[in-house]
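debug: dumping io for the single-chain case to check the tokenizer round-trip. Nothing else runs in this session.
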Amino acid sequence: MSSLDHSFDWKGFSFFLNLAALCLAVGMGGHYAWTYAKTLMPSAPTTLVAETVPHIEKTSAATLSSTTPQRIINSLTIADTIPETGKFIAADLVAMKLSTYENGQLVAEYPILKKGRPGTPWETPSGFYAIQTKEQIHFSTIGHVYMPYSMQFYGNYFIHGWTYYPDGTPVSASFSGGCIKVSTDDAEKIFAFADVGTKVFVYDTKQTETLPSLTLKSTSPPPIAAPAYLVADIDTGDVFTEQHAGDVRPIASVTKLMTALVANEIISLDKKVTVEEGYLVNPPNPASTAQKSFLVDDLFYPLLMQSSNAIADSLASYYGKHGFINWMNTTAQALDMVSTHFADASGILPDNTSTPDDLFRLATYLSNKKSFVLAITRTQTKTITADDGSTYSIQNVNAPADFSPFDGGKVGHTSAAADTMVSVLSFKAGTSTRRVAVIVLGSDNQARDTAELARWITSTAIDTSEAACVSCGTPPQYRKIQL
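debug: decoded output
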């Protein structure tokens, strides 16, 4: 089979991925630059040193980890997560404060000055982590900035002090690469407190209004030939129509949504990966074996726009295939995708399996926390540049969507999986914008099935909160997918 899964990608929908990262790389600043830079840093906010508080009993905190389901994370408060023993760091991205604990006791609190911007590739991920590395001065080779008292807690994400340029000039307050930034004085105290292995909980919650359930007109769902499908509301978990949504089936290149998510979070995006030139064109040209080196973030374009299996394998191999696939499965567990299993990064193996219910959870997470991944439909062509200056035009091999509310997703095809698709729609129902996922597995024509389901839900959905719909009646009691 060719390196590009192009036997299906001519049918689907268009994608793009625009990744950037500033919070990474290696290097140590010189002593004099560091000393000079500290004199130019913005004044450090007052450190909020707290009195010792009564011991907090949390018997369940010890079981919380990076595999804790996202729906549980979303329901927790910081008080729920404090362990009875050991050191612990809680970063509250809502209240914008970082707290340190030891043996269940609050030690100190510090203002968080900056976090990653929501909806971007560098949005700070919530969840349970641990301090992985500590560097007194860490240098980002993409941002070309120094990060004082840097503590890596997950992939491309760090806790650190106020960043500055090599000449000692502090960066502007708007600068963010996804890390948790505190004042340099506070970072020095946190750095002294933390050990490699110290547990970290990053707390965040979407501050959005609770949307009411939609009411559907009397129109029945269209007949769909696919053996398994699902149409469900991302904001409420309501399932509008489904067939065998709990059945485990091969998913083909839909796998690459998880590949992109994991690579974005665990591989330093300023690293260089070498790929064969022939895998940057479609159809692939295996005879063109010239080695070309690219930044990791450039490779997301052929990964998703051309559904390149070779690029997926290259990203996994750069990290280490075994470890990368383990991260994919660990992330699936964290998203409560309990019936999902990944066997490779491309989706070519039939052992890459999931269910419509589980893929709905992935679509919801991407929509809420990594929406840039799903925004790829609007990029038809992208030029990427190799390390030697060679340029390559990446063409979107998927046919344009034939309905306007398509907001992102991924198609796939293998002989074992047949046609597969995960898509997210964004459309108006009354005055509110609603997001609905359409998942189709095992189809003989995913483009047709997805379009039929999309036309049905967008034409039949009614927002019962609108005054004009007082007579619509009470919304039905849908099955809900717990998120």
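debug: round-trip ok. The radius of gyration is 24 Å.
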